[in-house]
Amino acid sequence: MTNHRLELLAPARDAAIGIEAVRHGADAVYIGGPAFGARAGAGNAVVDIARLATCAHRFHAKVFVAYNTILEDREIEPARKLAWQLYDAGVDALILQDMGLLEVDLPPMQLHASTQTDIRTPAKARFLQDAGFSKLILARELSLDEIKQVRAATDPERCTLEFFVHGALCVAFSGQCFISHAHTGRSANRGECSQACRLPYTLEDHRGRIVAYDKHLLSMKDNDQSGNLPALIDAGVRSFKIEGRYKDLAYVKNATAHYRQRLDAFISAHPEYVPASSGRSSHHFIPQPEKTFNRSATDYFVNGRKSDIGAFDTPKFSGEMVGAVTAVGGNWFELDGEAALHNGDGLSYQPLTNKGSDKLEGMRINVVEGRRVFPNEMPRSLATGTTLYRNRDQAFERILERDSSDRRIGVSLVLTASNDGLLLSLTDTDGISVAVRHEMSLEPAHDGEKALASMRSSLAKFGSSDFAVIQCAIAAPYFVPVSALNALRRQGIAALEAAREAMRPRLPRATPVMPPVPYPERELSYLGNVLNGHARNFYKKHGVELIADAYETNKVSGEVSLMITKHCLRYSFHLCPKESKEWQLKGITADPMTLVNGSERLSLRFDCKACEMHVIGKLKKKPLAP
Known about the structure:
By secondary structure, this protein is of the alpha/beta class. The radius of gyration is 28 Å and the shape is globular.
């Protein structure tokens, strides 16, 4: 039974960050390999991933490798070979987008369907389950009701539902954004997104009137599902994913600890659920997600459509508001507010002369004297009335720079006498037991209570191991040299580590349903992201009759949808016909709008039936040379 296990899945830019994620409570870590990951700048050598796997497996935590780009024909065989290297390194699962990889000899490891496969419907989810995927990473845009529908269409014992609960949000449906490739030759589906969604745009209506000027209209706030975890669990989600394979160590520690504590609190109140790995993490700080990189928070569409999901003012991390400037001197300024500032804090602000711009300016605090601040360099643009934000809390960052968590597996000890010495039994919280012996002649202790206390103290010194004693029972007090007890303890720890590895649960590879189940559609446009012959054969095998080439082949001419998104600018600016009774009575439909960035003009068309916005454009630049 797997449906009662809740998994916290943390990102890792590198092995060191992944190890810290495990220490801070992650049940699994996802990381990029040397190639074929959708974050081209976050690759890692196989030897480093092996080191992470060794650490994670001690706690029966898992390591997943993001293998989620679409592949050219020439890349299929290198991808197959690398998959086997990752398997030999201890990787537990591959996260895939390209269906062509299901047509080659992959190692017997679990496959997860990337969010890049665009899982929005029960039919698509059921198909991927039946095609052999054991985990489905759902589209970020789904509501609770939609997640429940996906769960109802799939088998919880055959596949797990995973959902993003924290971090940056792509405005487009994952796998359905081609702006980067069209404009720069860098394909988001091949790990090289240029993030056109974070640029400033002016929004014009169909008559050329300006609706919004120089705003980051495709930039979303960051995802935060902290308050929705019980509802997501009720809807069927069992894996809770933190975004951030480009993020730094402080972000990963902070976010992982935050959601670990949230999930542990839920599990304590609902004992029918258990964590998906072993051990408990003790955090040496109070997690505060708002202290590390974020663009303010939204729960997106989980509880229905909302108008305040955009980070329109700036895509940068401005930080927490700490007050407004009340006076300015030659090398100092004063501010109101009650936030405790520290030497070394970083402050940001938008100059009053450039209000509404994303061009944040900043400074580092040298000295704080009450409400008077002496920065490292006095900004010329700082004026009375300017709102200040703290985007680096020096005291909090210093905590996270040190060892900030300790993870241990609870062990119960029982020491008894045997015919030829002592027998120490160790049983961990997973129920794994070992017993070790130490041959010696035994003599009763003269002072029983003192001897018992000394024996318990020696046996409980587990030091830097992964274990902590939660119970120690000693049958009778004996006179035993401390060296003998230390040797027995070390022998017991080594035996338990070996037993845990031998009994470590392995993720089984799912067997596809035979004969191959039909794909939900008979035709695939360029939106199907078919870039190689193996993927084409996969879809043909599953009944698709017409298969277009991927956009990255540069064969799609003219203007097409370069981005499909549930984010709607008409809704954001209260121009949605479906929301206006007057417009509904008059039968008014949603006219196109235009996004303008310099000389670039992108048409917006609105599919009100599907409640989606399409950003229309055409191919302008050939792809980058390999």
